[in-house]
Amino acid sequence: MGARVELSRQRRTSTGRAIRVAVSSALTVLLVVGYAVGDITDVSPGVLTLRNVSNPAYAAPLAARSATTIAGTADRSKSIDAAAAQQLIDTFAADPSVGTDFSIVIATADGEVAASHEPDTQREPASTMKTLTSLAAASVLDMGSTLATGTYLAQADGQTATLYLKGSGDMLLGSGDSDPNHVNGRAGLGTLAKSTATALRQRGITSVALRYDDTLFADPRYPATIAQNNPDNMYYTAVSSMAVDGGRQWTAGQQHDPDLFTSYPLLSTTPAADAATTFAQRLAEQGITVSGSPAAASMPSGLGALATVQSATLAEIMAFTLRHSDNTLAEEFGRLLANATGNENSPTGATTAVRQELDKLGVSTSGLVMADCSGLSDGSRLTATTLVQVQERNLRVGGAVAAAEGLSIPGLVGTAKSRLTDQTVAGQLRVKTGSLENVTSMAGNVSRTNGGLLSFAVIVNNPANLYSARIAINKFMSALAGL
Q1: Distances, alpha carbon 476 to alpha carbons 86, 427, 460, in Å
Q2: CA-based end-to-end distance of the chain
Q3: How many degrees, rounded to 5, is the angle at CA 76 between CA 73 and CA 82?
Q4: For residues 246, 252, 253 and 257, what is the CA-based torsion angle, rounded to 10 degrees?
Q5: pTM of the shown model
Q6: Closest to 323 (Cα-Cα) out of 140, 187, 131
Q7: Which residues is 442 bridged to in the sheet?
């Protein structure tokens, strides 16, 4: 009896379930069909419709330009119309904002002067001084080489292992992972910390004392008269064996492309120590305990590297230096040159090394006084003849070409990005600008519209109106391509 009751219940349950499924399926079909009808009649949103569909219209494609013959070797000796060159100088001199304390030279690429005004008078150059340093350094240093930052381990029985952080001059370290897409930050302390932590753990080490070796450059690190034009350490900091982002101290919310910035944040006065502190933080994130604070110390000889990261090439760093007019990096190139040539490891040794190399290259150094390698310090003097001869040497084959390729391109990149007054000649000029309180200057080389090359230099000291004098230089520079 109980079995028959249970069987009856099961049959009723099964029948009820079948009815519910059938009703549910029917409702689903009705809903789908209903929505489809609504979609087709455009009552409901969807892709179905009974309306005619119009074909989209597209603009005609741009016509492709056929390639022309690849440019051959530049004609370095093509002459310049001397009268036309002199007219440009006369127009510049007639601008009342310029005043009378100025020099100009226009020359062919092989150094033949087409027109000039007081070319051999000593004047303060501002940042065009960097072109001298760049040419000298690029003529001696391996511009394809990089600067290594590495870690080295020293162990003593019963003592905490000591980890040394040693740099070879990379002042554009990144605080995080190495960035292959930028010059500034190409080598990252985060990447170095990861590799170092892995090597330490392989040795069973999880705690270290951190020391940083900043002995690459000897004291003094500041040129003697640089303070006058360096308020609040805004434009120059001590050359160091290592630094993060050149020692720049960006405030919260200041975002920028690491290779393209225009503002001037305050610079740290202890860039190497700051880099070591950042590295200690990255080590801690990798599970390595750093006992105490990082301390400066000379690294013992004979230690092998645990891990290293490499900077951008020197050629790339030089371009960064020139296009941002980075005073610290310009001084560093002078110091690297001094070390490479056996000169004194000091600011004076750097300027001596630059002058010696210019003499070897046949550049006139008559009237040259270098208070530093960047042009920021008070007291530097040179002639427009020296500047234009540097540009002529820049155009020769060899490592020195890096000093020309790294210059600002008016209308495109660098400190002269906004200074082109004739957009039809964009890309034809490479220049270095110079600006101080009573100085505006420019030097560079030009691909002439009608063929040939030229070099030029213009220095204005004590202009009647600094802003307007800069505009006068802009017009003069832009017109040079038409010679």
Answers
A1: 11, 16, 13
A2: 118
A3: 145
A4: 10
A5: 0.84
A6: 131
A7: 433, 458
* Helix (H), strand (E) at residue 391: helix 384-394
DSSP 290: E
DSSP per-residue codes, 405-445: HTSBBTTTBSTTTT--S-GGGTTSEEEEEEEETTEEEEEEE
The residue type of 372 is: D
Residue 284 phi, psi dihedral angles, 5° rounding: -60, -35
Segment 251-257 long-range contacts (CB within 8 Å, at least 24 positions apart): 257/182
Question: Is residue 457 within 8 Å of residue 384, measured between CB atoms?
Answer: yes
Is the CA virtual torsion 368, 350, 314, 172 positive or negative?
Answer: negative
**Residue owning tokens 């009342």:** 96
Nearest to 120 by CA among 103, 136, 143, 101: 103
What is 132-169 written as a DSSP string? HHHHHHHHHS-TT-EEEEEEEEE--TTS-EEEEEEESS
Is the Cβ–Cβ distance between 109 and 445 less than 8 Å? yes
In whole angstroms, what is the distance from residue 247 CA to residue 273 CA?
10
Q: Which amino acid is at 282?
A: R
Helices marked H in 60-127: 82-93
Closest CA to 273 of 214, 318, 319: 214
Q: What angle do CA 374, 377, 381 make, to 5 degrees?
A: 80
Structure tokens, 2 = 């109980």
Q: Tell me the mean pLDDT per 10 residues along the chain, length 483.
A: 41 53 55 53 50 54 53 74 98 98 94 96 98 97 97 86 97 98 98 98 96 98 97 96 96 81 88 98 98 96 96 97 97 98 98 98 97 98 98 80 91 94 94 97 95 95 98 98 95
- Strand bridging mode 207-213 / 146-154: unpaired
Instruction: Give the Cα separation of 106 and 86 in Å (integer).
Output: 9
SS3 460: strand
Q: Of 224, 226, 237, which is closest to residue 264 (Cα–Cα)?
A: 237
How far is it, in rounded angstroms, from Cα 392 to Cα 389? 5
Q: Which residues contact 1 (CB under 8 A, 6 or more apart)?
A: none
